[in-house]
């Protein structure tokens, strides 16, 4: 029986990685075909009443731009309600200044946070209880909507006959920590979640939803239990979206590049706390699943490159080098697909190894901090578990 060398093992591993990357590319191309743009729907002849609901906590740097854009919407029938979630900066003062000039804006001062609730869920629940629209549009306070955003949203909801749509904003990235993380998140969304299957599968890990821009039919929202049903879940957007999906109600993920933009984090401290708060929960708060996932990510995206670099100093068989080169080429193609589709700088393809390593560090840190009860966001400690 012929003896199998370590180089033979590496060769077969590289073949498996290349096959996996081909599957990722096929999934990505399929998703690109089915990820419709928010502006691609024909405008309806009737306009349902919309409640635009914005939770705001310590958003003095963002809230004025967001509210100005929302008050400039060309939609014929909507209400705008903003809840100040016990901010310690000038957020409430800024909101009151707007409300004093424009009666279309209703400002709510949030009630004290109950012990069994997380902050954003409690804010959104209060907002939904104050809303009277047929459609409930939840927007983060750091988003910047274009003037026709609500018109296109109503058109998409009616054309899709959806109970829920989640819209992907254009993500503004300026600093290198943002450039190494936000595009990687969108890439994972592109190849990791088969969009067409989300309506057919009940598996909570095969689903994609982003809480920066969520639109519910009001009756579907309450049928799913509202934010009260996910009051302790760190990834509230995924949790409530999966409840809608489990009820077999129609759900759509759309690209809102032309109609809404967002800069998630403006400094490293925000980014670190924001991502360590939620990454572990995204992996269903499972240490085993989290560790195995990031080990696989490192093997797929870093392993082939490590072989090519090592080949400068170590004599590898040609077949191993060729397979590693094929795997790296497939990786580059996959990243380029995502960067182009989501309008990130194309030069970031060269930094993908740093992105993978940095995201792995964040993922492991998120697991450790969450299990220790040390994960925080905006001054509030996150729970240790968030099973989906």
Question: What would you say this structure looks like, in words?
Answer:
There is one protein chain. This protein has 388 residues and is α/β, with parallel strands linked by helices. It has two domains: 6-32 and 280-381, no CATH class; 35-169 and 210-266, Spore Coat Polysaccharide Biosynthesis Protein SpsA, Chain A (Alpha-Beta Complex), CATH 3.90.550. It is 49% helix and 13% strand. The chain has 13 helices and twelve strands. The protein has helices at residues 6-34, 63-71, 91-101, 119-130, 149-160, 176-192, 218-223, 236-246, 268-282, 287-301, 303-310, 318-341, 352-371, and strands spanning 50-56, 78-84, 105-109, 135-139, 143-145, 164-168, 170-171, 213-217, 251-255, 260-262, 376-377, 380-381. The strands form three sheets. Strands 3-2-1-4-8-6-9 form a seven-stranded mixed sheet, sandwiched between helices. A three-stranded mixed sheet has the order 5-10-7. A two-stranded antiparallel ribbon has the order 11-12. Helix 6 (176-192) packs across helix 13 (352-371), helix 10 (287-301) packs antiparallel against helix 13 and helix 11 (303-310) packs across helix 12. The protein is globular.
